[in-house]
Amino acid sequence: MDERFQSVDKTLLARRFGAAARHYDAHARFQQEVGQVLLEWMPSRPVSTDLAVSGLDLGCGTGFFLPQLANRCDELVGLDLAPGMLAQAALRGGRAQLVCGDAERLPFADNTFDWVFSSLTLQWCERPAQAFRELLRVVKPGGQIHFSTLLDESLWQLRAAWQQVDGEAHLNRFLSLTQLVQALAEAGEAAPVLAAHDWEIPYHEAPQLLRDLKGIGANQVNAPRATEHRVGLQGRARLQRFIQAYEQFRQPDGQLVATYRVCLGALCKPC
Fold first, then answer.
1. What b/e readout covers 61-75, taking b as 16+ CB neighbours within 10 angstroms?
2. Which member of 22, 76, 234, 252 has the greatest number of CB atoms within 10 A?
3. Where is the Methyltransferase type domain (predicted)?
4. pTM
């Protein structure tokens, strides 16, 4: 793992995302947009086949995409690290089997799934190469893995604004595209199909962006812990300075933009 990253506390990670589960979807328009595009990357299910098709939604969260994924297979599994997320996914009903587990230690036998869908989950892995090895292990020969993940240029405006305030990034750390390619190579995947895109999400005011990050439980999960600051008047003053610093990114149309750098990827396990 890159030396800039701290070890990920998986218990804390599960607790934070689980605590956000009930209101996650209300703050997840970016995640929903990316997942929808990733779905369009996936090939449609064959019109007819004599064999049952099995799929895995890795990092299924609240189960937002499970209904659409269920139309592409006969047997569907949704896996997430956070029990709170799975509890929310269960409320959607449907026929997907929900499993609590870690992407770096998947609780499935070799060659189990025909395809894997994983949107904006793999960036939280401490050992991305291990996660990709696990995905390649559980997919069948000839099976496909479609994923999206965040790259290190994500939310550069947020980082720049906070650094003007107190010199700290207040931002999660993500892999660069070069590091992602290296992780895939270490996992044994030498020819991935990758496409990196800038994804701009508009906001009227900067605090809306902060509320979305907190609302999905993604506020500083894997970044070095920032220096503690006192709350109260001092905390409110810092927030006001941040809001003022973010104003430099207001667009001609009056919107403030938060830019994510997203990589869409497709892998195929050799037959």
1. bbbbbbeebbebbeb
2. 76
3. 56-146
4. 0.91
- Are the beta carbons of 140 and 267 closer than 8 angstroms? no
Cβ contact 222:122 at 8 Å: no
Q: Where are the domains of the chain?
A: 10-152+175-201+261-268
What does the H/E/C string look like for the chain? CCCCCCCCCHHHHHHHHHHCHHHHHHHCHHHHHHHHHHHHHCCCCCCCCCCCCEEEEECCCCCCCHHHHHCCCCEEEEEECCHHHHHHHHCCCCCCEEEECECCECCCCCCCEEEEEEECCHHHCCCHHHHHHHHHHHEEEEEEEEEEEECCCCCHHHHHHHHHHHCCCCCCCCCCHHHHHHHHHHCCCCCCEEEEEEEEEEECCHHHHHHHHHHCCCCCCCCCCCCCCCCCHHHHHHHHHHHHHHHHHECCCCCEEEEEEEEEEEEECCC
Chain segment 70-101, per-residue pLDDT in tens: 999 999 999 999 999 999 999 998 999 999 99
In this model, does residue 209 exceed pLDDT 80? yes
CATH class for the domain made up of 10-152+175-201+261-268: alpha beta
The tens digit of pLDDT for each residue in 21-65 reads 999 999 999 999 999 999 999 987 655 566 899 999 999 999 999
Contact 129, 98 (CB under 8 A): no
Sheet architecture: strand order including 54-58: 97-100, 75-80, 54-58, 113-119, 139-150, 256-268, 193-203
Query: What letter represents residue 128's amino acid?
Result: P
